[in-house]
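lol ok so funny story. i was supposed to be doing the assay writeup but got distracted and ended up predicting the structure for this chain instead. priorities right. anyway since i did it might as well share w the group, maybe its usefull for someone
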Amino acid sequence: MKRILFALFALALNLAAVSLPAQNPAGPPGAMQQAPAGGEVRGSIVSADSSSVAVARPAVAVRSKADGKLVTGVYGAEDGTFRIQGLRPGTYYIRVSGIGFTPLNTPEFTITPAAPTADVGSIKLARASVTLQSVQVTGEKPTVTIEPDRNTYRAKDVAPAAANASDVLQNTPSVEVDAEGKVSLRGNENVAIQINGRPTPIKGSQLSAYLKQIPANIVERVEVVPNPSAKYDPEGMAGIINIVLKANTDLGYSGGLNSGFASPSRLNVGTNVGYQQGKVTLFGTYGFNSDDRGIVGINDRLRFDETGDPLDYTNQNIDGATKSGGHNLTGNIDFKVTDKDVVSNALTLNKRHSNDASLAGYYEYDANKVFTDRYLMDKNTKSKGLVVDNSLSWKHTITPRTHELSTELRFSRSHDEDATLLWREPQNADGTSAGPSIQGELDANDGVTKQFTGQLDYTRPLWNRAKLESGLKETDRWLDKGFLVLKDDLGDGNWVPSNLSNTFKFDEGVHAGYGVLSQTVGKWNLQGGLRAEWSSRNFDLAGEAAVPYNYHSLFPSGVILYNFSEQTNAKISYSRRIRRPGTQELNPFPQFFDQQNVFIGNPLLNPEYTDAIELGLSKTGQLGSIQLSPFYRHTTDIIRVDINTADTVDNREVTSVSFQNLDKADSWGTDLNGNLRLGPKLNAFGGFNLFKMVTDGGSQSALSSNAVTWSTRFNATTQLTPTVILQGNYFYRAPVKIEKGRFSAMQMAAITVRKKIDGDNMSVAVRFQDPFNTMKFRIQAGDDNLQQITARRFGVRATYFTFQWNYGQAPKVRLPQQEQAPPPVFQ
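and the output, tada:
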């Protein structure tokens, strides 16, 4: 009954949108209204000199005479002709431009019901009195575009020699990618990653490998959305990072190749092909990634007795290597049924594998640091996975961006397997073997995850300069997982099943409806939205009672934006987000990192909610942009790591890592991002983030923290010659305290030299990743019983050589999903 009520509530939003009559049909041009939009303008663009040759692929923008705002626009044909349809009655003017020509505003023209077609004839553009190279630089899109709800960064500028999408993110302001490939926004790993507006088909640790298999040469831009509106899924406490793949309009064939390798033993190859003719568009990509690197580190422990004096010491030196690789294949079929209807099918296949092997040497000492024991621990983990993700969608466009209806059905299946083999080898004090390997243990996981998503989105204009976005969404997930543990305590080949073996099932359903209303009043842009969800989950562990959990949620959002001018604006935004516990956090199966450290999930975790308020002041100009964004977040039932240094699992003393809900957390800080563009001499941006978090564990918990940290990033590109560019970037994050511990500082640098061979069609590059060998991880954690220092170097340092080649331009893939990267929130 509750599901039906929520579905009816969300459906009412759509019915209201359909039934509301349009108001003020005689509004100004560009207003979102229901007046007929059958007008069109046509013409051609030619050079103003005596040759009168056609200007190929000119940019044509139609603007309203009343306020100068952009109404619509196209790129002309190769012969300079253009035709723009869908104009409402009103008075307009056209701004045209082309590479090598001076932009021009044309005289005004009028569209009326009696004369719906305007022919502006031949528009003559004067050639620019600068070199072609200079025109190419000044005519390019800016590196960063500041919009009301997001910052957009052009991939080729922030990461000119990146090998894959993970490298592009690593160079994007406010985004961090650690040594293991995990992505975070403003220091928070709980961020939603999207590809062309769709959530990625895989999550967790596998996501980093997936991003490495997307070739960088097909990444157009990265959109950072720190405070999304209610129309977006509320998962991802820190916001949304949307990776937009290239989608330039062009007919015919297109293709590209991106390859790179690094020392030692790293390889990345990607290719994309496309074809667009008439109503059909075909687009596909293939990527292969192989990564082999060494990992070294320590796990040093100091135990205390009841009086606080040292009890004993354990020093652990780790020498290991990790190998990973995989294939990623995507395909998109796009069929234009009518002028207003597009049917699309998108398929993604991802196959990956990894092998993590390490040898840890243990040295035991008593309270006086006198040697007592020495042994080796051998660990080998092998894993593989296969993801199949397919979506079928339909989009009906009445008026682009303002009156659209779209649907999508999406199904994905992921099969993941991993096995970890542990051995203990006794040693004498001089390092010689003291006997055969013993205490053998094999931990094997086999899990299948299925997910179905059905979505309906409807956008329509209301009264003057207002629009409503509404929709319904159903998401269902099913996970079946088996955990097998075998033991060979004596090392004689007699493997015996352990009572740790188990199976479990996890089901989750989310039923949602949303409505978002946007209104423009003079220089003010207003938006308010509400998303309602009814959610349920069931955790069924073999041999134990099921753990059901049902909950309702409301997610309001709002934005108030004031435009001081076209270059300067200020805003305040609010949104509510949720973090649902992942299956790894809920899964109670012990996962041993080694013989002394174990990970155990908590099936009783509640979701955490965050209310976020963000201010913003942005200014753009010819030389670049600057943006100041103070923010405040209040989180309830916050999920935090719980470290138990005196735990016992399987009859051995271990340090266990689990999760628990704390009472609340408050965090506040500010982002300052700037971009400076001085033509070919310098294109630079920098960012500074100051952040404070206060965590309250509540009256029943001793966990709490009160910490301030900050981070900064710089990225600069200069053009040494017309075909050679040099780029350098640097990132630093200061130390930060957490519950029961402290993370040390982290820093990273990279230097890139890129050479163009055939314009933008071909290039070679060399990138020195972590040239100063500063990328490392260190954490000190513990309590009155034990203090542990964990440090790692992940072998990030490398020299990359990349080659990129493009043929033609990638065809436009018409993305029907409403959660694709839209234009600015306010039209």
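The first helix runs from residue 2 to 19. DSSP finds six helices and 47 strands in the chain.
back to the writeup now i swear
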